[in-house]
Amino acid sequence: MDKTKKLVIVGDSAFAEIAREYFEVDTEYEVVGFSVERDYLKKPDLHGLPVVAFEDLETVFDPSAHEVYVATVYTQLNRLRARLANAAKAKGYRLASYISPRAFVWRNVQLGEHCFVFEDNTVQPFVKIGDNVVLWSGNHIGHHSTIGNNCFVSSHVVISGFCEIGENSFLGVNASVANNITIGKDNWVGPNVPIMKDTDAGALFRAEQPEPAKISAPRFFKVRE
C-alpha cells in the first residue's frame, strides 16, 4: 500500500508497538515516530524510530504534515487516552483511526474520530460508536447499539441489540450485555461478567475467581509420573 500520510504514535507500550504494526501493514500511514510525556521518556527510540517528548511534539513533527494516534489503553478509565488525544488536537494535529480490513463493520455504522477497531469484530447495522473508542479483537456489537466516547471494549465481548454503553466505560474479556441495556458512564465490567439490567454511573462489577477443587488436576486425570 502506498504511504501517503505520516503518523506519530503517542505511547511506547505494547499497544503502541501493536498500533504501529497495524498502521504500517494495513493503511496508507507511515509511522515516523513515537511520543510520551517528558516525565515518562525513558528511551530515545523504539523499533528504530525516535521517541520524543510530547511537550515538544510540534517542534519535531509538523502538525500540518503529520497525524497522531494515542495508543494507550484504559488507564484512569480511559481518561489518559482522552486527555492526550485532546492535547494533540490542541497542538493542531488531526487524529487518526484504524479500522481493520478483517473486521465486519456494516455500511451504516457511525464511527467517531480516533477509534481503533481490531480484526474479527462484528459491528452490526445502525450501531453508533463515539470518539476515542477501542474495540480489541473478536467482539460482537449488536444492531442499534451505541458506544459512548472514550470506551474500551476488550476481546470477545458481546453487546446485544439496542444497548447503550456510557462514556469512559471498560468491558472486560468475555463480558456480555443483554438486549436493551443501558450501562452508565464510568462503569468497569470485569472479565466474564454478564450485565442483565441497567447500571448506575460509576458502577464496578468484579469477576470472581473460582476456588480450585480439592483434588488436583494430575490426580483427577490419573497422571502417572
Order of helices and strands: EHEEEHEHEEEEEEEEEEEEEEEEEEEH
- pLDDT averaged over residues: 97
Number of domains: 2
Any idea what the shape is?
Answer: globular
**Share in helix:** 10-25%
Output the radius of gyration. 20 Å
Number of helices: 4
Unreliable spans: none
List the helices and strands and how they pair.
Blueprint: E1 5-10, H1 14-26, E2 29-36, E3 45-46, E4 49-53, H2 57-60, E5 67-70, H3 79-90, E6 94-95, E7 98-99, E8 104-105, E9 110-111, E10 116-117, E11 122-123, E12 128-129, E13 134-135, E14 140-141, E15 146-147, E16 152-153, E17 158-159, E18 164-165, E19 170-171, E20 176-177, E21 182-183, E22 188-189, E23 194-195, E24 204-205, H4 217-220
Parallel strand pairs: 1-2, 1-5, 2-4, 5-6, 7-10, 8-11, 9-12, 10-13, 11-14, 12-15, 13-16, 14-17, 15-18, 16-19, 17-20, 18-21, 19-22, 20-23, 22-24
Antiparallel strand pairs: 3-4
Structure description:
The chain is of the alpha/beta class. It has 2 domains: 5-96, Rossmann fold (3-Layer(aba) Sandwich); 97-201, 3 Solenoid (UDP N-Acetylglucosamine Acyltransferase, domain 1). It contains 4 helices and 24 strands. The chain has helices spanning 14-26, 57-60, 79-90, 217-220, and strands at 5-10, 29-36, 45-46, 49-53, 67-70, 94-95, 98-99, 104-105, 110-111, 116-117, 122-123, 128-129, 134-135, 140-141, 146-147, 152-153, 158-159, 164-165, 170-171, 176-177, 182-183, 188-189, 194-195, 204-205. The strands form 4 sheets. The protein has a 7-stranded parallel sheet, with helices on one face. The chain has a 6-stranded mixed sheet with strand order 3-4-2-1-5-6. A hairpin with a 2-residue loop joins strand 3 and strand 4. The longest helix has 13 residues, at 14-26.
